[in-house]
Amino acid sequence: MSRSAHRFLSKKKQVAGMAVGAIAMLAVTVPALSQPEGSGDDFKKDEVFKVTTVIQVPAAAGNTAGTFFSFDISWFAPKLNKFFLTDRNNKAIDVVDAKNPGAGVKQQFFQAFAGVNPGGNDFSGPDGVLTANNDTELWVGDSPGKVWVLNSGTGNLVTLPGSPTNPISVGGTSRADELCYDPKDNIIMIASPAEGFVTFISAGAPNSAPKGKVLGQLKITTGTGIEQCAFNPKDGLFYQNVPNDPNPGDQVLVINPTTMKVVRTIDINVNDCSGVRGNAFGLDNQLLIGCSTPSPNKQRNSVVIDATSGKVLKVLMNLGGADEVWFNPDDNHYVIPSCNTPCRTVGANGTEQLGIVDSSGIRLDHSVTVAEQNGVMTPLPPPNPRTIHSAAATGNQIFLPIPAVGGTAPQFDPTLCDSFDDSIVRVGSPRTSIGCIVILAAKKDDRAHVAKEREGDDSQN
After folding, report:
1. Percent of the chain as helix, strand, coil, to the nearest 5
2. How high does pLDDT run on average in the chain?
3. Alpha helices in 170-309 (DSSP H)
4. In this structure, what are the phi and psi dihedrals at residue 458, rounded to the nearest 5 degrees?
5. Beta bridge partner(s), residue 187
6. In whole angstroms, what separates CA 359 from the centre of its chain?
7. How far, rounded to the nearest angstrom, does the alpha carbon of residue 366 sit from its chain's CA centroid?
């Protein structure tokens, strides 16, 4: 396991004039996280991520407080080299160019998004986001029951042929949330968790139905919600996370995009992973599942399974409390924004961690401390505390949105929003009190090692 050379000082130990500079030093992996297997020589070759850029998110006119704390899912479009984030505080899609991160949020796409609704996440938006049709379009979930189709370069509405309006209506009074894309059949599947169904929408040719047409819906009513889905290019099927099904437990439903039916079910053992949330396909038909709630032993874990057999390949102990997870095909690593049980327990002094897991051997290479508790004890949830929960990656970069401190306890301060030294580019005036987007980059990018890992795997582009 690679370890960062320094840790930032806890808030109790900060000295006036030194606190901001101290945050720039990233933390070592905390002992509670799983230790990887293998020799020490292996780990010397792995990448160590450090903060390179800290970005203040521009506040829209309606965001008078200027804070950034309510966001949902992010996406990276490789053909565009752009990072997209659904930003509820500003009712916008925030866009960062990976080739020019020092420019900060270069674009903000504004539409009539729901924003932050006092009724909670089920009525707020924008929510899920991805690109389709060779990254030319941005598909965005919103509330109530809306799916927007935007030009990914300008943010303008895409004209849909025939009868569909833009945004497309999938029905219901709550949000259309997280979504996945089948590029072979050109079909979008999007979840409406509070309504208990997923909707299938044509994204255009070669699908015979016109772009924007709702093809059908599949009811999913056995769980306590509907979370992230992912498309598996190896079998052409959608894999839909359904958390906390009372019998037999968490499940992944494998769904045929064209028949819109469940073809099989993968049961997730609650002792391995509880409360399935994010998922991402990696090498060799691996499926990473990020889980949010505690298992019976109180640990929050994530798990990697074989997508065909459902066999557990590795339990990533204490690397849970996650929502969106990501696989980076450029370096074959998973990225997991984690707030595990100590992190979510008031007074436990737990820290938020960004876990970087090597898919070859499924080992935790590196963990970066993102934030630590500030000692505030009240108010207690609900709603959930503000934690990191979204990330995307490309090349040797990781994009990590960090919410402004506040909300219910535990609260997190300081965070990496306060990172500052001569090697870090700061855009605007980012700080813990208002939130930020942090970009981390690998100190070493061993391309020979990556190429070796990719041999014999046909899932990589």
Report:
1. 10, 40, 55
2. 88
3. none
4. -100, 10
5. 182, 202
6. 17
7. 18
Task: Please name every residue paired with 82 in a beta bridge, in sequence order, or none if there are none.
Answer: 77, 97
Q: Tokens at residue 359, please?
A: 């898919």
Mean pLDDT over 295-313 rounds to 96
Query: Which of 429, 349, 338, 440 lies closest to 389, judged by CA?
Result: 338
Torsion from C-alpha of 35, 40, 43, 49, nearest 10 degrees: 70
Q: Which is nearest to 435 in space by CA: 461, 408, 453, 413?
A: 413
- The pLDDT, as a whole number, for residue 28 is 34
- For 46, 74, 233, 271, the CA distances from 459, given in Å and listed in that order, are 22, 22, 7, 30
CA distance 113 to 135: 21
The predicted pLDDT at position 162 comes to 82
Distance CA 52, CA 47 (A): 14
Query: What is the DSSP code string of 233-267?
Result: TTTTEEEEEETT-SSS--EEEEEETTTTEEEEEEE
Query: How do residues 362-415 score in pLDDT, each as one tens digit?
Result: 999 999 999 999 999 999 999 999 999 999 999 999 999 999 999 999 999 999
